[in-house]
Fold these 2 entries.
Entry 1:
Amino acid sequence: MIRVIFLGPPGAGKGTQAAVLSKDFEVPHISTGDILRSAVADKTDLGTKAESYMNAGELVPDDLILDLIRERLGQKDADKGWILDGFPRNVSQANFLDKLLAEIEQPCECVLNLEVPDKVLISRLLARGRKDDNEEVIRHRLEVYRQQTEPLIEFFRSRQQLVSINGHQPMDSVASDLTQVLQA
Ligand code: ADP
């Protein structure tokens, strides 16, 4: 059973590694980015509201995300553990998650922080070429990350929950470092 939060800037490899761990540890990979992108593709109410923020590299407003997380962690498959990728992304989301996890009795001990130099992030994201992966939007997403998400590193570190991993290595090496941490 694992319950893990992935932290790290855009392009750090959270989604890739979360998918590997999800398969190995047989727990759902919950990516708020994936959920939002599929809402956009399906033209749901959520998707319509979220799309312009995503295209601009801004965070989607908390009120669109919080209910979604509560609902997702309440689903049956989340009983056996989960990997959160892309949430929490600011301090208010982290405080919300704290309360929610206490309420549903699903404690999370481990926050995995993937570290990758900025230069590498930008070239990875440009190579990925998603709709929100043009240079201007990428720079803005990194700025939003620095301002809103990076403070969570200290938030979790001060509670002894943070483990940092070098994400600037071949994918398999990152995966084995992560597995080692989780099996310790
Ligand atoms: P990245 O690989 O750049 O981290 P994600 O797939 O995690 O991308 O997220 C893509 C976009 O979805 C973000 O730029 C943001 O607009 C929106 N998003 C995802 N998760 C959240 C969240 N927890 N809070 C607010 N917005 C979010």
Entry 2:
Amino acid sequence: MRYVTSGESHGRVLTAIVTGVPAGVPIEQASIDAELARRQTGYGRGGRQQIETDRGTVLSGVRFGRTIGSPVTIAVANRDWDNWMDVMPAFGEANEATRVTAPRPGHADLAGIQKIGSRDIRDVLERASARETAARVAAGSVAKALLRELGVNIISFVSAVGAVEVETLDDPSSVDAGLVESSSVRCPDAEVSERMCRAIDEASAAGESLGGVFYVIASGVLPGLGAYAEADRRLDARLAAAMMSIPAIKGVEIGDGFAAAALPGSQVHDEISFDESRGLRRSTNHAGGLEGGMSNGEPLILRVAMKPIPTLMKPLGSVDIETLESVDASRERSDVCAVPAAAVVGEAEMAVVLADAYCDKFGGDCLQDMETAIAAYEARIRP
Ligand code: EPS
């Protein structure tokens, strides 16, 4: 299973096309829209979220509420298009007055126009905008629908906004998802949530932006997904690449991640045990559910670092690409902090990778065949 998206931030519509979706997966309009709404929440978002109420319109691949094995297309309209029709039309004459010429440090702006040979940074920023992630979440909702049938559950939460962080986190996979969903910054600790919101207020008042850290966790994943034998089928590599594909992501850790590099092996590796009810298990999960490029049956735990958003209301120095004079970087309406939204995008990215890995291992033609193959596999690996 994989997806492509199309669409610009202030264009008419975003679309996601998901291919390799097995037939027979139940799809609900409400589940697609609920995922899109989760991505739109989060303290620190800008004025744009008051304009948009994202809805996914299914254009192909679903019939009477079930996938039919053909590509699934979902469109998400940009309501803001009404205000941008004159800036983003497909045809007509370019308007010099709406050109953007002061690239923002940290954004795709400068390398983007150098790459495509444009005199208007808007040609780049419209697609580089994280608005595109709405389409990814639509794609992820299809992957999640399959995973739900297979007993896999994916959650995310924010553990840091700027310098404010949750200090003690014994077992990230046992975090209360209800608490996360009720926090405006997707943080399971109410007191830390409050401090995160104040940090966002302070950044906003200072014309600053803030990054942070989020976890994405999958439970109910069977062992043996991915591969130890081929580099590009390794599940850890594919999950890390999927997280790094989200705009503004600068780091990914699996399990104990960088901290494990400083410890002796006996404190890092998870002992293997057996009991009648649970079969072969690990007593700890330092590996974050991934060993040898494969899932090992424990929860998959990824920790992801997001840099602060590049659009600053108190801008950094830049150079006008037309006059070559020193100027302030361009200011666009933007968010102060989008870490909670990025966490929801992280869930979608993980869902697509895991759905693809399940289709690889258990056949991707139809859900019923997958369920049969999974039952046989579970019986075989059970001692
Ligand atoms: C973004 C800038 C802002 C964000 C946008 C990402 O949009 P605008 O330029 O219209 O104010 O709100 O994110 C979304 C619209 C979204 O739905 O996530 C940027 O430059 O990356």
